[in-house]
């Protein structure tokens, strides 16, 4: 019998943290003891795990005593400060924030793409979980890159509000209710109304004219695929959808890849489900991607404007494959191959 582990979830009351607790239960991760951690605002709250109410504790430096695996999703500054403290206490940290992703000695892992990089957790005791939009894109890119070498990617995203956190989910719902009942619309999370609108703005603007979210897709894709030669350009857009990010992806490959060959490769790729039957109006949509763990790919077709080009459409549940599921998958490999 393999053993069970003491697991902390930092940010357990958040949109991602709650999904992490749910994923640990669903996937029957061997949890000996669950330690949900959050801010003092959550004192008195609890999380439900395997039918039991477990009280949320306040995150402190001492909270990691005996913790073997610490799943972080409480924002970058908490990860920066407490990640090394948890690692020092002997835990392996799997971090969902952008704090550690681009550190050269911290592995950035999507299990379907670069599971071998998990071994590098030994450098710092930290493994980074990529950005949600990057994860679903590289799951689809990997089999195509292996077969035909991707030279360039042009991606535009259509991202759900749940990516921003629980408050953004509530803001979209409240704005829709207000608009449909002629009440005043309140904006707090986003600088503009998100209900019935589209914002070409995710995370902060950088000096180069891109947003940080767009640059995450550029840099993380190269790191995860282990190939700096792949050129990526991205436009990240927020849409009034609750759960599920969609992406329009255009690739240029070195070798010719027909849509049929791409469909065949993708239909065999781990974690991918091809949904591509336009005759029956079947294509990936956030409503179908939400609540499950596969990355859906469809609208696969030739880009006639260049010699070796393809277009396709990728959708996944941003809180599951984009965050919690990917994190728990990493932890599963960690205990199977590295921790005993
Ligand atoms: P959220 O719904 O706002 O939840 C934030 C969580 O962090 C809550 O549990 C909150 O606890 C906790 N927290 C905040 N400040 C804290 C503090 N000072 N001390 C202890 N806990 C604190 O946000 P979310 O959407 O779950 O996102 C959380 C993190 O996940 C962010 O780092 C985000 O970048 C990352 N994320 C990653 C992806 C991805 O692409 N893989 C996707 C979404 C989010 P309280 O309830 O007590 O305030
Ligand atoms: N700002 O993990 O707003 O870097 O949707 C993920 C999602 C940051 C991240 C979002 C964000 C991240 C969002």
Structural overview:
- Helix 4 crosses helix 6 and helix 4 crosses helix 9.
- The N and C termini lie close together (11 Å).
- It contains 9 helices and 14 strands.
- Strand 13 and strand 14 form a beta hairpin.
- The model has no long low-confidence stretch (mean pLDDT 98).
- Strands 5-2-1-6-7-8 form a 6-stranded parallel β-sheet, with helices on both faces. A 6-stranded mixed β-sheet has the order 10-9-11-14-13-12.
- The chain is globular, with a radius of gyration of 20 Å.
- The protein is 31% helix and 23% strand.
- With 340 residues, the chain is α/β, with parallel strands linked by helices.
- The structure holds NADP nicotinamide-adenine-dinucleotide phosphate and 2-aminobenzene-1,4-dicarboxylic acid.
- The site of NADP nicotinamide-adenine-dinucleotide phosphate has 29 residues, from helix 1, helix 2, helix 5 and helix 9.
Characteristic key phrases:
340 residues; alpha/beta; 6-stranded parallel β-sheet; 6-stranded mixed β-sheet; 14 strands; globular; binds NADP nicotinamide-adenine-dinucleotide phosphate; binds 2-aminobenzene-1,4-dicarboxylic acid
